[in-house]
Design goal:
This protein starts with 13 loop residues before the first strand and ends in an 11-residue tail after the last helix. It has 14 helices and twelve strands. The strands form two sheets. A seven-stranded mixed beta sheet has the order 1-3-2-4-11-5-12, sandwiched between helices. The protein is of the alpha/beta class.
């Protein structure tokens, strides 16, 4: 897959839902007002619960959240300028590959602050029922969100099956389009995160099946990042965000019913089974640990191999551990202490 360009102001995948207090949105103009881009998936349940339980407010933060179906799309919007200053939005969540791509494409002006969540079972390859093995994908059309975690997933899976990306046709799609596209026969398979796999199984029934998860191939991540200038110009805000999200992490792990209720009410979900499944897969982190250090090194090697990484990999320029060290020092492993 070629390197994505990140130009233009793209908001087409916004879910159309903003969660805010009654105050007008002036996020980033005052230290207590924050604009966060995130995804309406259970991988973000630490953020969901920080909102629902008032943990952001406890930290004197007025957080507005804009929801995007894919972190890649959120980052395209995050790039866009506002009020003559580069960048729109204060904090952004998304996958590990979009974060690494964004960092290099923005000339290292972006930093990863913390891992929110990671897992393997919540990333799925869904295929037509007649595609029984990975080798059966040869010559087929596979959808993913190019530039997202799905790109890394499908590449690692194909490699394990003895296939190269040139052996298939990769089609770029937003996640919510994939289940109906598979049902219509426009694609033969897709590789993405839940709940879109569960949606496809519900729509198409026995005509499709779960070919694989990411287990044994890669860890998928949800990470929190920000503009370096924002962290510098708003001292203390990042620490407060991290403390609130960590309280959300702890609450989410102990209150599944509240997570499901949030999904049902906030996103008008009638069928919450996919959220319940995703909930069970979550490894909630809100930290920077050795697993993340090793996984991002593997990601950088892969990006270099396929020509996606255009600049030298520099963890000290990509990660910004200092706010986490100040807020939650026990959540930072030795690899990130420099």
């Amino acid at each position: 897959m070629g390197q994505r360009t990140w130009s233009g102001f793209i908001v087409i995948a916004v879910i159309g839902l903003t969660v805010a207090t009654a105050a007008p949105v002036r996020a980033g103009h005052e230290d207590g007002k924050v604009l966060l881009f995130s995804q309406p998936i259970a991988k973000a349940d630490a953020i969901w619960m920080a909102m629902q339980q008032g943990f952001f407010k406890d930290e004197k933060l007025d957080v507005t959240v804009k929801w995007f179906s894919a972190g890649t799309t959120a980052m395209q919007t995050f790039q866009s300028g506002k009020d003559g200053k580069r960048g729109f939005g204060d904090f952004n969540t998304g996958g590990e590959l979009p974060a690494a791509n964004f960092w290099q494409n923005m000339d290292e002006a972006y930093a990863l602050l913390a891992v929110i969540e990671r897992d393997t079972e919540g990333y799925v390859g869904i295929a037509r029922a007649d595609i029984k093995t990975g080798q059966d994908l040869k010559g087929k059309t596979i959808a993913t969100r190019v530039g997202s975690t799905g790109s890394w997933f499908v590449s690692e899976y194909l490699k394990a099956q003895g296939l190269a990306e040139k052996d298939v046709t990769i089609k770029n799609m937003d996640p919510h389009i994939m289940p109906p596209a598979l049902d219509r026969g426009d694609i033969d398979a897709f590789f993405i995160w839940e709940p879109y796999g569960a949606q496809a199984l519900k729509i198409s029934g026995a005509r499709v099946h779960k070919l694989t998860t990411a287990k044994g191939y890669m860890n998928g991540y949800l990470v929190l990042g920000a503009w370096k200038w924002y962290v510098r110009d708003h001292p203390g805000v990042t620490e407060r965000m991290l403390r609130a999200i960590d309280r959300g992490r702890q609450y989410a792990a102990q209150h599944k019913d509240d997570v499901i209720k949030f999904a049902r009410e906030q996103f008008s979900m009638q069928d919450t089974a996919p959220v319940e499944a995703d909930y069970s897969y979550n490894e909630r982190v809100v930290g920077l640990d050795k697993v993340a250090w090793d996984d991002f090194h593997k990601l950088a090697v892969w990006m270099k191999e396929i020509g996606l990484l255009k600049r030298p990999w520099n963890p000290k320029a990509f990660f910004e551990p200092r706010p986490l060290l100040r807020a939650l020092p026990e959540r930072v492993s030795s690899e990130f202490r420099w």
